[in-house]
Design a protein that fits this description.
Helix content: 40-55%
CATH superfamily of the largest domain: Aldolase class I
CATH topology of the largest domain: TIM Barrel
Structural class: alpha/beta
Strand content: 5-15%
Radius of gyration: 20 Å
Number of helices: 13
Largest sheet: 7 strands, parallel
CATH architecture of the largest domain: Alpha-Beta Barrel
Order of helices and strands: HEHHEHEHHEHEHEHEHHHH
Shape: globular
Strand order of the largest sheet: 1-2-3-4-5-6-7
CATH class of the largest domain: Alpha Beta
């Protein structure tokens, strides 16, 4: 399960794990928030033993602050620490964190070496192919990450400039796999199990990371491909919403759940009136009743 800010919180990770996801990684955690504190940090740090192997993913542009964050997170007993070197969001990458680190391979070496030296659990990293098409330095960066002691690397096969546009370059993942000996996890444009199998076959990578395709479709991780019917969809929505309200409280849980609900229901929310009504509901039971009725009406 790919770490996705704003999506892969504890409830969603748990659902995906129950469907067959092989590992859980937190939403990315800002090193500044660890150092200075953040009012919602504890909510973001929660995980369960059911999710193991579990990692915290951290990001920062400052190696010392990133190390401090990793050491603090280590106290919560994750199975490994993952360093975000792939986030393309401008407020992250433009400050030199996330994919911004790809501009400074020497800083990457410093970060990985420091974390490996000071932590007693494995360290991994998630990268992109480079800042843009003129600076595709993924092979150099992958070798640096391996040489400084990391235990695995995930390659999102796009540049920072691409963000999520265009096609993922799976050939690049294969090149990384041929170059280094540590496990390589491929990421990008995997929308089904067929895609996952094809990526493994084409690149020889050791694992597949699925991100956006899992939103509204946690069944994607199931061993047997599932095309959910309305009953299965409602049951998953009910389970997911219950976990969200338990985790965040009713008011915030329903608000945060809306972005998932859009993906679960898709074309069922096909008019402005329906969207306006469903997004005005603030009680869990009322919302579930409306969704149940909506599905039944669609069926008729």
């Amino acid at each position: 399960m790919a770490p996705m800010d704003g999506y892969t919180d504890f409830p969603f990770r748990l659902l995906c794990r129950q469907q067959g996801s092989a590992a859980s990684i937190s939403e990315f955690i800002n090193g500044i928030d660890i150092k200075n504190g953040h009012p919602h940090l504890n909510t973001k740090l929660l995980f369960s033993n059911e999710e193991r192997p579990f990692a915290y993913q951290v990001f920062d542009d400052d190696p010392d602050r990133l190390l401090h964050a990793a050491l603090e997170l280590r106290k919560l007993n994750p199975d490994f620490i993952d360093v975000n070197m792939g986030c393309s969001a401008r407020n992250v990458s433009n400050r030199g964190a996330g994919a911004g680190l790809l501009k400074d391979p020497q800083k990457i070496a410093t970060i990985i070496k420091s974390l490996v030296k000071n932590l007693d659990i494995p360290v991994s990293a998630k990268i992109r192919l480079g800042w843009d098409d003129t600076t595709r330095n993924y092979l150099e960066v992958a070798k640096i990450i391996e040489d400084n002691g990391a235990s695995a690397i995930t390659v999102h096969a796009r540049t920072r400039k691409q963000e999520y546009s265009g096609n993922a370059d799976w050939l690049a993942i294969g090149e990384v796999k041929q170059l280094i000996k540590i496990p390589v996890i491929g990421n990008g444009d995997v929308k089904s199990q067929v895609d996952a199998d094809r990526l493994l076959l084409q690149t020889g990578c050791d694992g597949v990371m699925i991100g956006r395709a899992a939103i509204g479709n946690p069944w994607i991780f199931n061993d047997l491909p599932i095309i959910p019917g309305k009953v299965e969809s409602f049951q998953m929505i009910q389970r997911h919403l219950g976990l969200m309200t338990e985790h965040y409280g009713t008011k915030i849980g329903i608000l945060v759940f809306r972005k998932h609900l859009v993906r679960y229901l898709g074309n069922y929310l096909n008019t402005r009136e329906i969207r306006s009504e469903i997004f005005s509901l603030v009680e869990e039971d009322t919302l579930l009743e409306y969704i149940s009725t909506l599905l039944e009406l669609e069926k008729s």
